[in-house]
C-alpha cells in the first residue's frame, strides 16, 4: 500500500545521501526560477545574434549597391571606363582582394556566440521526464480543484479568497440547515432522515474524495458546538522563563485530534535564512520502494526537501530551542529540521507521520522510538491550494506565513492516533515552503506535555 512506504522513506531519506544527476524541475519552484533566468539570458544572446546578422547583411547590401552602380557605368562604355588608369587599378583591386573579402564576410558564421551559449545552457534544460511530470501536475490540479479544461487553458484560475469563502459558505449553510432542523415540526422527520443519510454518505466517501474536497475548502466537519470550544490565547510554554514576559499567540485549529497554531512564531529573516541554507541542498523527496528496496520518486509525494542541523546555524538552533520550549518536548531526540518546497502541483497524499504496529523497524536506526509529535512551520503564504488536510476528521489547515501548527501523533500510551492521518494538498497557484520537526518518544518520559493537555 502506498502510504505504508512513506515513513520508511522519510527515515531512509535521513540516512542515505541524495545524488541525482538531474534535478526534477517541476517539483519545486525554487529551481524553476533559475530556468526563467536561463531563458532570459538565451533571449539576450539570440538578440545579439540577430543584430550581428543584420549588420552583416547591411554591409553586404551596401557592397552590392555600390557594385551595382559601378558595373552599370562600366558596362555602358567598358573601353572608356578602363581608359582611366584609376578605374583599371580599382578593377584589379576589387577582383584580386575585395571580392575575396566579401566572400569571407558572406561565409562568416555570426551564430557562434548564440550556439555556444545554447550548448552550455542545454545541459540544464528540463527533459522528457520533467515535461511529463509537469503535464501530470496539471491533470492532478484539474482533478483536485474541479477545474474544467477551458478554465485551465485560459489561465482563469479560481480566486483563492473566493475558494476559501466557498468553504465558509458551506459552513454557514450547515449552520442554517441545523437551525431550520431544530425549528421544524415532527412532520418533517422524513426530510430530516434524508438529510442525515446525506451527511452519513459523506463519511463513507473514499479517502481520495474527502482529501480533494478538503483541499477545495469543502466538507469541513466542524460543528458550531465544537467550534465554540476552540479558543485563542497567549501562551507562555507552561511558565517557561523565556516566554513569561513575552508569551506567544496560540489558536486552537481543531479539537480531536488537537491541532494548535502558533502565530508570528518565525520571523521573515529567520525564514529567509532557513530557505537560503536549504536551497542548494533541495532534492526531490523520495520514497522507499519495498519491491526493489531502492529509493524512488513517487507521484504521491511531489516536493523537494533538505535537512538542516542545529549545529550549522544559530538560526536553526534557535528554532529548535523554540520548539522545545513551546511543546515541552525534548528536541535532542528529534529529527533534524526538514525544509520542503512544493512547486505548482506539488503535494503529499494522505499519510501518517508515525510508524504503525506492522512497521516496528521504522525508526530503529534512530534509536529514539516513534514520532510522538509533528511541528510544522508555514514559511510562505500560498496564493491558492496547498492546505494541510486531515481526511479522517474533515479538517483543513491553511498555510499562513510565519505560523506553525503542532499536533501529537501518539496517545500518551504510545499508541498511534489514526485520526492524525493528513496530507499536503497540491499547490494550485504560487509556491509553498514549509519546515517541520518530528519529535520522538525518547526523552519525553518524565516530561508533562504542556501544550495539548488543556482541552482534554
Ligand atoms: C509532511 C507533511 C504537510 C504540509 O511533510 O509530512 O505532512 O502541509 N507536510 O506540507
Ligand atoms: Fe506528514
TrEMBL record:
Point out the signal peptide segment: 1-23
Protein origin, superkingdom: Eukaryota
Q: Does the keyword Repeat apply?
A: no
Give the matching Pfam families: 2OG-FeII_Oxy_3 (PF13640), P4Ha_N (PF08336)
Protein name (record): Prolyl 4-hydroxylase subunit alpha-1
Q: Which SMART domains match?
A: P4Hc
Catalytic EC class: oxidoreductase
Q: What is the organism lineage in this UniProt record?
A: Eukaryota, Metazoa, Chordata, Craniata, Vertebrata
Name the GO cellular-component terms. Answer: endoplasmic reticulum lumen
Fe2OG dioxygenase domain location is 333-441
Question: EC number(s) of the enzyme?
Answer: 1.14.11.2
